[in-house]
Amino acid sequence: MSEKLNLLVESSPQIHHYESTASIMWSVVLCLLPAGIWGIWLFGTKALVVLVASIVASVLSEALMNYVFKKNTILDGSAFLTGLLIGYNMPPAVPLYVPVMASVFAILVVKWAFGGLGGNFMNPALAGRVFVFFSWTHQMTTWTMPKFFQAVDTVSSATPLGFLKTGLIDYKGAAHGPAQFLMQNGYPHTAMDGRFTQWINNLFGTHLSGGYYDLFMGNIPGSIGEVSALLLLLGTVYLFVRKIITWEIPVSYLLTFGLFVWIFGGKRYGLSFFQGDVLFHLLSGGLILGAFFMATDMVTSPLTRKGMIIFGAGTGLLTFIIRFYGSFPEGVSLSIILMNITVPLIDKYTKTKRFGVIENKGHV
Amino acid sequence: MKGLKTFSRGGVHPPGRKNLTSSKAIKNAVIPTISIVPLSQHLGSPSECLVKAGDNVTEGMLIGKSTGFISANIHSPVPGTVKEIKDVYLPNGMLSKAVSIELEGEFDRLGKEQNKRDWEGFSKEELLSMIADNGVVGLGGATFPVNVKLSIPKGKKAEYFVVNGVECEPYLTADHRLMLEKAERIIKGIQIISKIVEPEKIAMGIEINKPDAIETMKKAAAEAGIPLDVVPLQVKYPQGDEKQLLQAITGREVPSGALPIDIGCVVSNVGTVHAIYEAVVFNKPLIERVLTVTGGAIANPQNLKVRIGTPISSIIEECGGFKEVPEKVVVGGPMMGFTIYDLDTPVIKGTSGILALTSSEIHGAVRTSCISCGRCIQACPMGLNPTTLFKYIDHGDYTEASELGLMDCKECGSCGFVCPARIPLIQGMRLGKRMLRKKKVKA
Which of A96, A112, A347, B173 is surrounded by the most beta carbons within 10 Å? Predict the structure, then answer.
């Protein structure tokens, strides 16, 4: 064996699982794409411009930090993903300085002030969104109607949840739930939604109100990437297949939230307990995007399965409280970043059970 | 797979790639002109060198004498002349004195009919000293002197004797082939060990990816009329670790810091059982072993019976050399083995395989910061938190790491295998354990 070989010497294990940090990040980007394409189609090219602006701002900020700290982290995809998520959380017609500021804040302050990827204790995209939400609330709550309704009225459009929030103040009407409330107060629906609702009602003999079809398909005003529950769930399926996310956080999040909505959600329509409209609330706002793509952010969620369940349940409870009793219609972003803060504490108290160790000695 | 026994916590499923060699019968490897026999091939203190340059040695002659309670004898694998005593690097990167022997003269055993001894007449003590004299160590990987392991301490009792036929390391098929080809000898070896440790029950764990081995061993046990319970197990790494194997088979957990005998169990790997048979019945020292030469870069992967001291380069040449440029050459399995940079490194008693891996088998990636995905925690069979341990070790806080169970880590590599950030977790654990031991010695 005379030829000189260049052999790699490193510590065991000598083989690895194919998944890497970069493959995880870029896979999440891939899974998000269908919902974003829908958003661009629905709201027009201005939505695309917003997405591009937030991604470019985010990646450039990361590049600046790379230059300062002499690192090379652009290709790991985390900055691109942060930018994409910020874009997804923006209203389509937002002035471009808003997503740019959100991205810069997310990368420079939330991420790199704490050491870059892995060091941040809050989801950078959500912290960036919350930062601009409180800084430019008006711009962040001015919505664009989907292309189906643009003839109707483009200025005074509101998201279904926003419409509910303002409409339900001192409401004394007879609506038996959010969907019916929207229907009775002239909230626009597509023709397809009407046909679908009728078909379901004929099939099962129910008296469902219209609106669910639009919510599920994404025919509603809202942030660019959050509107289509269907396409977000499609991406989620791939995340589960690739085992990039596990069931603990989204399931405990949605279950807890759904449970509280079911128990208390009917109260504001004068109904008794256990009559809340769970489906409406699961499909509306940023809940699907938040539960599957943001709360599951690995860096800012607990390490153990037990911890993840606690984290998800806490987020669900907070979202319910903010959405139903707070002054904001939404609540997903705030609940997730509030729970992000509790992660070190959760990690501290959710230890794994060690092999061959009898617990109950107590920790001093 | 469902319904089969396995261990409870953690574990991973690396690609097995055993089909490269699992159907290839064991062949005798060519004997090299120069054998390099290190004096430290086992856990514990190195053996004392009994020869000097210029000495003539015979096949199987004692050249290294055990120097303590945990140490082992070393024998010359070939007849010949001692050329020099020199320092060589072992596969694990440690430096060891080694005897370099130039092949010369006649073999006493090779190709000759060997005298069989009737082992049933020997006492327990005689059997143990035969095993010790012939330098038998655990061939599963730890290379712990077997006579020590089989001496049951006073006040302890072996309820179970468990034979480890799991071979959970990917790629390796040496134990698999041994079970298929030497089942009778393994059964006899089990009988010998049973005479020494007097267990109440004898079991053997084999993963279900070796159905032929399960059948063969069942049949051989039935023919010999011994009550061997061959247990088919789910395929999951690291099931071949004795703690995981014992939990899978007996349901008992070896307490942290304790040994299998503390829960009434003795474990031996099939390769070791076979070596014990040869040591007792043929009075044959441990001078050769079966290993798997494989990997994507090897032209002709196979299972070889190799003399200790054979340079790895000569074995690779025998397997047709490299068909493509390897990224790594690994001694041992891919999960726990060591990379070498010098192909003249010799085969030692603990060498279970030689792998030449291509980059597509390794899945290397850029190292990033920990993204707290928690995969290492879900993978750890000991229920540890590798990423947190690594952080403490990285910051030099070995005491805190120890309190979180660092010493329970057996470096199985499950955490490092799944880590998407490619953090050298096992390297960290090794460093931490080393620093803790140093500290203890000082204190």
Answer: B173
Query: What is the nearest CA distance from B379 to chain A, expressed in angstroms?
Result: 11
Interatomic CA distance for residues B232 and B384, integer angstroms: 27
Alpha helices in A265-331 (DSSP H): 278-283, 287-289, 305-325
Q: Which residues of A touch B395 (CB under 8 A)?
A: none
Interface test with B, best of A2, A5, A10, A14 (most B CBs within 10 A): A14
**DSSP state for residue A109 in the 8-state scheme:** I
Please give the Cα distance from A341 to A318 (Å, whole number).
13
CB B326 within 8 A of CB B341: no
Tens digits of residue pLDDT in B226-246: 999 999 999 999 999 999 999
pTM of the model: 0.92
Maximal C-alpha separation, chain A? 91
Of A65, A92, A77, the closest CA to residue A23 belongs to A77
Residue (of A274, A276, A287, A270) closest to A329 by Cα position:
A287
Enter the DSSP assignment of B407. G
Residue B30 Cα distances to A190, A258, B78, B114, B132, angstroms: 80, 70, 12, 20, 28
The CATH code belonging to domain B117-281 is 3.40.50.11540
Q: How many helices (H) and strands (E) does chain B have?
A: 14, 17
Whole-angstrom CA distances from B75 to B47, B48, B145, B303 are 11, 12, 15, 23
Question: Which residue bears the tokens 């989204």?
Answer: A250
- CA A111 to chain CA centroid, nearest Å: 18
Range(s) within chain B of domains with CATH label 3.40.50.11540: 117-281
Task: Return d(Cα B352, Cα A206) in angstroms, integer.
Answer: 69
User: What span, in angstroms and rounded, lies between the C-alpha atoms of A210 and A193?
Assistant: 6
Contacts of B164 (CB under 8 A, 6+ apart): B140, B204, B205, B240, B242, B245, B267, B268, B269, B270
* Cβ-proximal residues to A215 (8 Å cutoff; 6+ apart), any chain: A160, A229, A280, A283, A284
Q: Which tens digits make up the pLDDT trace of A59-86? A: 999 999 999 999 999 999 999 999 999 9
3-class state of residue A199 by DSSP: helix
Q: How distant, in Å, are the alpha carbons of A43, A127, A252, A254, A295 from that of A332? A: 22, 12, 14, 11, 9
What phi-psi label fits residue A222: left (phi over 0), alpha (psi between -120 and 50 degrees) or beta? left
Nearest CB to A298; choose among B316, B362, B371 = B371
Cα dihedral B187, B189, B191, B195, rounded to 10, equals -170
- SS3 for B226-277 is CCEEEEEECCCECCCCHHHHHHHHHCCCCCCCCCHHHHCEEEEEHHHHHHHH
Per the CB < 8 A criterion, the answer to whether B4 and B245 are in contact is no
Alpha-carbon separation of residue A235 from A52, A76, A335 (angstroms)? 20, 20, 23
Q: Which of B316, B358, B372 to mutate to test the interface with A (most CBs of A within 10 A)?
A: B372
User: Given the DSSP bridges, would you call strands B95-103 and B80-89 parallel, antiparallel or unpaired?
Assistant: antiparallel
| Predicted pLDDT of residue A360 | 56
Distances (CA, A) of A254 to A164, A282, A346, B185, B420: 21, 7, 19, 60, 27
Distance of CA A12 to the CA centre of its chain: 38
The residue that leads in pLDDT, B186 or A158, is B186
pLDDT greater than 70 at residue B353: yes
Q: Which of A17, A115, A352 sits opposite B385 (nearest CB)?
A: A352
Cα–Cα distance for residue pair B58/B79, rounded to 1 Å: 4
CA B356, distance to chain mean position in Å, is: 18
Distances (CA, A) of A100 to A73, A94, A105, A293, B133: 20, 11, 9, 21, 76
What gap in Å lies between CA B306 and CA B174, rounded to an integer? Answer: 11
Q: Which residue of A has its CA nearest to B377?
A: A304
